Amino acid sequence: MKIKHVQLFPIATPRQTGIANQHVLVKIEAGDSYVGWGEMSDLSHVPMYQFDLPELERMLNQLLGGKDARNLAKIEDDLIRFYPDEGHMYSRSGLVRQGVDLALHDLIGRAEGVPVYDLLGGKLRDRMRVCYPIFRMRSVDEVAPNLQRVADKLTQGFDLIRVYVGANLAADELFLGQFTDRFKGQVEIKSLDFSNLLDWRRSAMALERFDELCDYMLVESGAPRNDIEGLAQLRRRTRRPSSEHVLHLHHGWQLLSAGAVDILNVSPYLLGGLRACERMIALAEAARASVLIGTTQELNLGTAAVAHLAAAARVLDYPGDSTGPHLYTDDAVKNPVRYEKSHLLVPEAPGLGLEVDEEKLKTMTAEAKWTFGVDLAGVLDRTAATRPSAQQG
Ligand code: LMR
Ligand code: MG
What we know:
By secondary structure, this protein is α/β, with parallel strands linked by helices. It has helices at 53-64, 72-82, 92-112, 116-119, 143-155, 169-183, 200-213, 228-237, 249-257, 268-271, 274-286, 300-312, 324-327, 358-367, 376-381; strands spanning 3-14, 20-30, 34-40, 127-129, 132-134, 160-164, 188-193, 218-220, 242-245, 263-266, 290-293, 339-340, 343-345. The protein has a seven-stranded parallel β-sheet. Strands 1-2-3 form a three-stranded antiparallel β-sheet. A three-stranded antiparallel β-sheet has the order 4-13-12, with helices on one face.
C-alpha cells in the first residue's frame, strides 16, 4: 500500500470563548483507493511564525511518496530526522509528525476495517473523563463571567473544570472561593495550571492560599519552563500530585528521574502522534508514575485520536483536557466525537471513526482567515482581545 499523495488543508475556526485558531487537516492517499485524515492542531501559539504550507506539502510528498503506508515504524523514523524534537510546548515539528501519524493510523484502520485503538493493541476503556478549561484571568472583572461559564457548562453536563492561574492572584482567589461557594459538590476542579509563569516558590505560596479555598486533583506546570529542579522542589512541598507537559521522550525520563512530577501530561500534538505517546506511557509505567492526556485544543480528528489513545493506554490515572469540539464553533467532519457527562467517548467506526466533509472543508479552506499575529492577547491567554482586561496583557 504505497503512499501516493499528501495534501494539506488550512482552516480557521472560532472558539466560543472569542479567539479563532488555525489548524491544518492532512489527507493521505495510498494504494488504489485508501484515504486517511489527520490534523496539525491549533497553530496559533507562540513561537509566532507559521508554516509555509505549499513548501511543507511539497516536502511531505517528497518524504512519504512511494513509501509503504503500513510501515509506521519506518515512516516515523524518517520523519523524526526531518522534523526533530524542538523542546517547547508548541513544537511545529511535533505537529507535522502528529498530522502524518494520525492520517496513517486512520488510513490503515479504514483499510483493515478496524478502529484505531485496535491498531494500538485493543481497548481497556471506552471513555475518558475530561475537563472544561477556564482560561487565565488578568483582572477580577473576569471572575463573574467565568463563574457563569461554569454554570452554563454544568447545564450541558460538564462537572469538571481546570483553571489557569498565576497572572492575577486576587482574581484567582476570588474565582476559586466563589467557585466553592457556588459549585461545591456539583463541579470538581481537575487542575490548577500555572503554565510555567511563576517560579516554584511563588507557585507554592499561591497554592497555600488556594488550598484554603478549594479542592482540586493536581497542580500543573508550577515552575518556569525547563526548570526541572524547581518542579522537584515544588513537588516536595505540596500535598497534591504535580504534573508537567512532556516535550519528548528524553524529557519524560528527565522529569521522572529527577522526581519532578507525579504525572506525565502526554499529548499527541506535542510528542508527534500516537506512537510517541505510547512510548511515553510505557516510560511512566516503568517509573510507576501517573499519566494524563493533555491538549492544545484539537479539532474533532485530533480529539478522536486522543480518545483512541485513552482507550488503549496502559496507564491513565487522571482526567484529560480534550474539549476542543466543545470550544470550537465549527469543524469539517460530518460526525463529531461524542461527549457524555464530562466524558469523551471512544469512536467505534473504522480508523479514527470520523468522516470528513470534503465539500465543507474546501469552503472552510477557501474562507480561512489566517488571523495569526493580529490578536496578541489571544495568543498568550486564549481569550479574546475584547475581554475587559486583555489590553493589560
Ligand atoms: C489552548 O489553546 O487553549 C491551550 O493550548 C492552552 C494552553 O496553552 O494550555
Ligand atoms: Mg492550544
